[in-house]
Amino acid sequence: MRRQRVEHLSPADYALAVVFTTCAAMVISTVRADESIVNSKHDLSAKGPGPIRAVHETEVCIFCHTPHNAAPQTPLWNRENPQTHYRIYQSSTTDARIDQPSGPSKMCLSCHDGSIALGNVLSRPVTQPIVMTARTIPPGTIDLTNDLSDDHPIGFRYDRALSNTDRQIRPPEVVTPQLPLGSHGEMHCTTCHDPHNNELGDFLRITDRMSAICVSCHDLSGWTHASHATSRKRTPARVVDPYERLKYATVTDNGCINCHKIHSARRPERLLRAFREEDNCLNCHSGAVATFNIAADIGKRSNHTGRLRTGVHDAAENPFTMRRHVECADCHNPHAAQPNPIGVVRGTLGPLVKGPNLHVKGVTLTGRPTDNATFLYEICFKCHADGISRPRRNQTRQITQTNTRLEFQPSNPSFHPVTGPRRNPDVVSLIPPLRTGSIITCTDCHNSDSARSFGGSGANGPHGSIFEPLLVRNYEQRDFTAESAEAYALCYGCHSRESIIGDESFPLHRLHVVDLRTPCSVCHDAHGVYRGQGDGSNHSNLMNFDLSVVTPANSPSGRRVAFVDTGRLAGNCTLMCHGREHVNFPYANSTAGRATARKRGLMSGVNR
Amino acid sequence: MKLRTLWPMATLVAAASLGGWASGGIEGSKHDFSDRPWAGDDTCGVCHTPHRRVAPKAAPLWNPKADLSRRFGTAIGRRATATEAPRAGTGTTMCLRCHDGTVADAIIAGKQSERPANQQRWSMFRAVHGASDHPVGVAYPQMDRGYRPMPTVVALGTVLLPQGRVECVSCHDPHNSADTSYMLVTSNAGSALCLTCHNK
């Protein structure tokens, strides 16, 4: 019925209706009290809406402005400037030169630092201030105090020099004129706040919904498509912040304020919402808001957060000299992190950094720090390579190397193919789709045991695992371990158990591993052998004996432990192990052809 | 029936006319200096003279002794441009003749009982290049969203904008004997006078 009526409207009627609606909208918008200072929180007159107001004074403007005998600064200022010396914002990553607040900012602070009584105005004698319900601004979020180190910096020049140094700050000329800077291009309170207009809440000039006001100046790499900018997940009250209800209901609407508090931040540097760095993440990533429960992962036996040290991580830290620590932000950039591609399965992730690790700092294969890691291992190298605080394994081998960057050099005599493919035809046990020449990543072995891409239900990534050292599957390293699919599940994930104990490569695998119960790790060093410490003749095939099990044997050339590569699937050993002495003990495998046939899938029964 | 409806109306009319009467004349106002020896029992003569003897453009007949040579500092708005020397003919010069920070003070000093607790308020428009007073002699800013449209202000009739400019008489009525403080043209309760022009 109604539809019909609309259709029968003449063009003139329609125009009239449009005009009427527009006028109505204008009237409504003009009568909205929020747009005026009158009835806003800054209306301190006796009729003001807030708990802080005058007892008798009915004028609205007089608390800040007076037409005569004002302070000698525009706009007809009616208050003393506070004489406070402020603690100003400091950060290791800011390129701005932040000074004491000046000009309009001081005017705001004449109430908001709590040092001057609200009713003390120049137009009144000092002895007769305006009587207010509160003498000074009451403590709380609106009282900025003399400590401005936990507030967004003001009093710095926002100029081309700044935006040229800090690429994540937009050039000032492209910033909307809705956010005015001071007469010398400096930022003030009034850049973000319009004290006369509370239409958007918090007297903001541009809405902070979806961080619109923040991204006017801040141009963070990867933010546009980051989960924290786009997720429509709900942020229930007191979950993201136990002390404060967030302004909006979803992650995307809250944007920056999910993690940052622009004023009175609990961790002042970088204005973080929670004091402990990890709490900024875990409040959501513990099953409450985000899909995966990372808190559950990092609570496991072997985890990446045993070194959580509040206040140690620094976004500007030098990976070579930093103190040992790990924070979420060491591997993740919350401004750029995205979900993993949907439906990833093992082997398809590839070595390049994916969604969760985009725009993270790292150390390249050549040992140079980079602001934007390209390969996943570059992120690992930040802590596990050249740094003085890198973890050192307690295992004693023939060759000890704790710098993983050196262990994985592509020119090494042997290494797991993390930094590049290998062309070793001796690895006949690989389970398709893996083959000689495949590339794997650190996280193919070091991952949470509940990782989704390994058939679990948890998050991917080395957050925490029940298997040490942070391995996705069990990997027994103790001597005399009874061989089973579970004992060496990590190795058997890629290297077919059938092939290994079927003696397709080393013809005595079954004897050593099954019959004599020697773990894989006694002979093989999983990461690799650095070319500076060994070569293809003595450390091929990841051979690097564990000296806690293998001891030197008396050979004609003295007591020693040695492996000699004598060609394809052939070699000899000189060592003492499990009470047996090998002196130049040779082996060779003639069944390589059969193994290759198996690898090509001609035989069934792939064991994972 | 009819009376009952008329009563409130009649009361309103009476109140309105009373109010108009009360705010009328200069007699009894703070500008009534007729009891001072120097005024010579002449209320108007302090400021006005019955015959044109000065600048013919000056609309009310100003006292020729007004010193127009002084320059005054006024607040300069964000976009308004203030003329430093007050313009003739808009009354502002006449106000400044006394309210330049010296004369009015002296007048008040002559009669201690009238001296307000904060004497500063009489010392307005000090001859310094500060920005401590609302600009006068400036064109009404018509293109600024921070101000209401000039036709709206003019139509309201509360604030006078002589020659489209903001002057002393925009806010002050020098002949006002009503008890609005500062001889304002209307009460500034709720900052109503400020908000007549300022769209804040």
How is this structure best described in words?
- The complex is a heterodimer of chains A (608) and B (200).
- Chain A has a three-stranded antiparallel sheet, with no helix packed on it. Chain A has a two-stranded antiparallel sheet with strand order 1-5. Chain A has a two-stranded antiparallel sheet with strand order 2-3.
- With 608 residues, chain A is of the alpha+beta class.
- The longest helix of chain A has 21 residues, at 11-31.
- Among the domains of chain A are: 2-31; 228-291, no CATH class; 489-602, no CATH class.
- The model of chain A is unreliable at 1-9, 14-33 and 593-608 (pLDDT under 50).
- Helix content of chain A is 19%, strand content 6%.
- By secondary structure, chain B is mainly α.
- Chain B has one domain (30-197).
- Chain B is built from six helices and two strands, in the order H-H-H-E-H-E-H-H.
- Chain B is elongated and about 50 Å long.
- The chains are: A alpha+beta (608), B mainly alpha (200).
The count of β-strands of chain A is 11
Largest sheet: number of strands, sense, barrel closure of chain A: 3 strands, antiparallel
Residue stretches of chain B low in confidence (pLDDT < 50, at least 5 long) are 1-23, 55-59, 64-85, 108-130
Instruction: Kindly estimate the percentage of residues of chain B that lie in beta strands according to DSSP.
Output: under 5%
Strand order, largest beta sheet of chain B: 1-2
The structural domain count of chain B equals 1
Overall mean pLDDT of chain B stands at 63
Which range best describes the helical content of chain B: under 10%, 10-25%, 25-40%, 40-55%, 55-70% or over 70%? 25-40%
Mean pLDDT over all positions of chain A: 86
The ordered string of helix (H) and strand (E) elements of chain A is HHHHHHHHHEHEEHHEEHHHHEEEEEEH
Helix content of chain A: 10-25%
Question: What Rg of chain B, in angstroms, do the CA atoms define?
Answer: 19 Å
The chain-level structural class of chain A is: alpha+beta
- Distance, first to last CA of chain A: 67 Å
Of all protein chain pairs, which has the greatest interface, and how many residues does each chain bring to it?
A-B, 27 and 26 residues
Secondary structure tally, helices of chain A: 17
Please indicate the percent range of residues of chain A in DSSP E strands (runs of 2 or more).
5-15%
Query: What is the global morphology of chain B?
Result: elongated
